[in-house]
Amino acid sequence: MKKIAVLTSGGDAPGMNAAIRAVVRKAHYHKIDVVGVYYGYEGLYNGKFEPLDLGSVGGIIQRGGTMLYSARFPEFKEEEIQNKAIENLRNQGIDGLVVIGGDGSYRGAMALTEKGFPCVGIPGTIDNDIPGTEYTIGFDTALNTAVEAIDKIRDTATSHENTFIVEVMGRNAGDIALWTGLAAGAETVLIPEEEFEIEDIVARLERSAARGKRHSIIIVAEGVMPGHKLGKILEERTGVQIRVSVLGHMQRGGAPSARDRVLAGRLGAKAVELLLEGKGGRAVGIHNHAVVDYDLKEAYENKHKADVSLYTLSKELSI
Ligand SMILES: Nc1ncnc2c1ncn2[C@@H]1O[C@H](COP(=O)(O)OP(=O)(O)O)[C@@H](O)[C@H]1O
Ligand SMILES: O=P(O)(O)OC[C@H]1O[C@](O)(COP(=O)(O)O)[C@@H](O)[C@@H]1O
Ligand SMILES: [Mg+2]
């Protein structure tokens, strides 16, 4: 292997830049050239390639977003588009590709690998929803952003005796909601993986009010239902006015936490090692604090599971 490429795809995540930097630096350490592909799979198809030397990734470790930009490019499911992408890669003398993204991006990487072009996946998504790794790059930063926002909401909620619903990101996964709820001491946490009863939320609100609690915070993952919809349901049921805050894309931005930067460094380096060993079709991740690699397919064919013990704990700590 003489030259590899790297791209970022799907929703951006803080720490993607640190991962790009790790890929570039580790490759250069082994005297391998690196090409950056801009705009994810769209750029792979349109040939938006630029060489990345050591200096090109200087000063990005602390920056949110991705210097390679990202895109959602549904056309990449089509075979002719994938064939063209491989042709573009081969024309540049590139022998391997590192894809930093989520489960959707992994499907694209596997499609190319099955067509004979080796790809390795690095989990870059705030949702923490990739099976096979305990943490994804960006999750820790998004979690800290959400907790900081909720701490602020709690100040005003307490001053005015308000009940707040805070909608956090997580299309199919409840990790952001669950961890945020635990870290911010929310009364109720709703995640897509667990059924819930409106009556249970109402009972919690009533119990809190009865013991003189001045505020209530309910965290809902966007994949459960929109926060405003839940607010309407609860207002109708309780007669109490409910404020709703949707944290939205602010959760995807900002400087990556130290934890995300270190994770990005470890996983980026491992991805390059795998390509150097000629191993395509692999995903990298963290298991029991150690860097691991596993079949890319496992990452999207299995379903992400929320940690039920954390869900139970969140209920036990907010009776
Ligand atoms: N089944 C698939 N086959 C090939 N490429 C795919 C497939 N699913 C997704 N992709 C590519 O990966 C991109 C990112 O996927 P998406 O699900 O939006 O985000 P994420 O990778 O963060 O989960 C898509 O826009 C598309 O270009
Ligand atoms: O801005 P978009 O493209 O609608 O993306 C929103 C989605 O992106 C995410 O932040 C991350 O999802 P992916 O990692 O699958 O891209 C989800 O939590 C959210 O539903
Ligand atoms: Mg995804």
TrEMBL record:
NCBIfam families in the record: PFKA_ATP (TIGR02482), PRK03202.1 (NF002872)
Official protein name in the record: ATP-dependent 6-phosphofructokinase
Organism, as annotated: Lysinibacillus louembei
Enzyme's top EC category: transferase
Localization terms from the record: Cytoplasm
InterPro entries attached to this UniProt entry: ATP_PFK, ATP_PFK_prok-type, PFKA_ATP_prok, Phosphofructokinase_CS, Phosphofructokinase_dom, PKF_sf
Tagged with keyword Kinase: yes
Modes of activity regulation: Allosterically activated by ADP and other diphosphonucleosides, and allosterically inhibited by phosphoenolpyruvate.
Phosphofructokinase domain mapped to chain residues: 3-275
